[in-house]
Design a protein that fits this description.
The structure is a single chain. The chain is an alpha+beta fold. The chain has one domain: Alpha-D-Glucose-1,6-Bisphosphate, Chain A, domain 4, CATH 3.30.530. 24% of the residues lie in helices and 41% in strands. The strands form three sheets. Strands 2, 3, 4, 5, 10, 11 and 12 form a seven-stranded antiparallel beta sheet that branches. The longest helix is centred in the N-terminal third of the chain and has 19 residues. The protein starts with a helix and ends with a helix.
């Protein structure tokens, strides 16, 4: 019992020290895309197809799968422009394609930037009645990682990341 009386305060001190040094994560506050972005265009399927292929080429996005008959375009995994939110939940970089949750290292009280932010774009182009075209744009496989050093080497962990809708709006503007 005496050993437990001595060990208990020591355990509390160690736990409070560990909690005080833990990285603080600030969740994303804003509302962002949680489903595919749909665009309805008055342009023909062929014209929309050509404009989207041009858009991918102009933005340096390589294409992994392209099937004109089914209207499917899937990009290779690509680096994505990202941003944090400010304290009010507004994007710091309003043009970024991705918003990520913020982590703060309490030691120097410094924001930890991600080591990588990647994802794949799926675009589905479908002809509709009345000479209209539907374009569904979906960001999938978003992976945002932060790296940190430990006594065991460099470790990475995933952090929450969401599409801001900016990439999808760029495609919409390209088609109009």
């Amino acid at each position: 019992m005496t050993k437990l009386k001595i060990a208990f305060p020591l355990i509390l001190i160690v736990l409070s020290f560990m909690t005080g040094c833990a990285i603080k994560t600030i969740p994303i506050k804003g509302t962002y895309l949680d489903k595919p972005y749909e665009i309805i265009s008055d342009k023909s399927k062929d014209l929309v197809w050509d404009k989207i292929i041009d858009f991918f080429a102009q933005n340096g996005l390589s294409i992994k799968i392209i099937d004109r008959s089914s209207g499917l375009i899937i990009s290779d995994k690509s680096a994505l422009t990202w941003t944090f939110e400010d304290s009010k939940g507004k994007l710091i970089n309003p043009n970024a394609w991705i918003v990520i949750e913020k982590s703060i290292d309490p030691g120097p009280n410094k924001v930890i930037k991600p080591s990588s932010v990647t994802g794949d774009w799926n675009v589905r182009i479908k002809e509709l009645p009345n000479n209209k075209t539907s374009i569904n744009v979906n960001l999938v496989n978003i992976i945002a990682k932060r790296a940190y050093a430990s006594k065991y080497g460099i470790n990475e962990y995933e952090i929450k990341a969401l599409s801001t809708g900016n990439f999808e709006k760029l495609i919409s503007d390209q088609i109009k």
